[in-house]
Automatic annotation (TrEMBL):
This is Heptaprenyl diphosphate synthase (HEPPP synthase) subunit 1. It comes from the Bacteria. GO terms for biological process: menaquinone biosynthetic process. It comes from Planifilum fulgidum.
Length: 255
């Protein structure tokens, strides 16, 4: 099977595992980024893992990320209406459900080291979220500080996976910087992805566009350092397909 066929198979399995009529009826179809899934696939393939192990880790890690994302959608304001309280409870339960699928899938295959490392990464993600909530509580967060926290929130899971499978010095692992940078780029390009404090920090669409362009240059250099030739080619192609349109947009862009 081609690399694209394998990635499509992984995306299809994730869609099947997250299809639940009750959840969809009450909170909508849970979303995930196809770019995130493909990045995970290429990261794991670069370590020459067997295809079934790549698939397992892609599916499990994405389900875990989806669980974390669903918890972000839980409203924190006071709720008096029964519908609002019910919706909040369902977001929490759905997030817990997807996270539990992550544990079950990996435990069934004996991937205890992966469970341990990703569980540590979740703790680090939650620490960054708490910092972000504290900083954005009535104050304006500077873009560099904000992006640093988003990098930890969005990039910790793939970075942890790369540490798990990389042999050698951590400083020689290109994915340690590349994976978090790619997740930040994907977040910047997604107008619907918001965390507390995002509006003040990125009130200017022009600023967001400048950040994408600056980070894109760094990401290309980091991607060129990936040793696996097939992965490197596909990764650079995927980066271009996802982000090159931002290189031609006018800086006056709003949104």
């Amino acid at each position: 099977m081609s690399i694209h066929g394998e990635m499509d198979r992984v995306i299809g399995e994730i869609a099947a595992r997250t299809r639940d009529p009750f959840v969809e009826r009450h909170i909508g179809r849970p979303k995930t980024s196809a770019f995130f899934v493909k990045m995970l696939y290429l990261l794991l393939k670069s370590f020459s893992l067997p295809s079934e192990r790549i698939r397992l880790h892609c599916v499990a890690t994405t389900l875990l990320q989806m669980g974390l994302d669903l918890h972000e959608r839980v409203s924190v304001g006071p709720e008096r209406a029964e519908q609002g309280m019910r919706s909040r409870q369902l977001f929490v339960l759905a997030g817990d459900y997807f996270s539990s699928l992550f544990y079950r899938l990996l435990a069934e295959r004996g991937e205890i080291r992966t469970i341990s490392r990703l569980s540590e990464a979740v703790c680090e993600v939650n620490e960054a979220k708490m910092e972000l909530y504290a900083l954005s509580d009535g104050r304006q967060v500077s873009p560099p500080t904000y992006l640093g926290l988003i990098r930890r929130i969005r990039g910790n899971l793939p970075s942890a996976l790369s540490d798990l499978f990389h042999d050698g010095k951590r400083s020689d692992n290109p994915w340690r910087e590349l994976a978090p940078d790619l997740t930040v780029l994907d977040w910047l390009a997604d107008a619907d992805a918001e965390y507390p404090g995002a509006a003040p920090a990125f009130a200017s669409g022009e600023l967001r566009l400048e950040l994408i362009r600056s980070l894109l240059a760094s990401v290309r250099r980091e991607a060129a350092a990936v040793a696996h030739p097939e992965v490197r080619r596909e990764l650079l192609r995927m980066i271009g397909e996802r982000f090159d349109s931002y290189l031609t947009e006018p800086l006056a862009r709003e949104g």
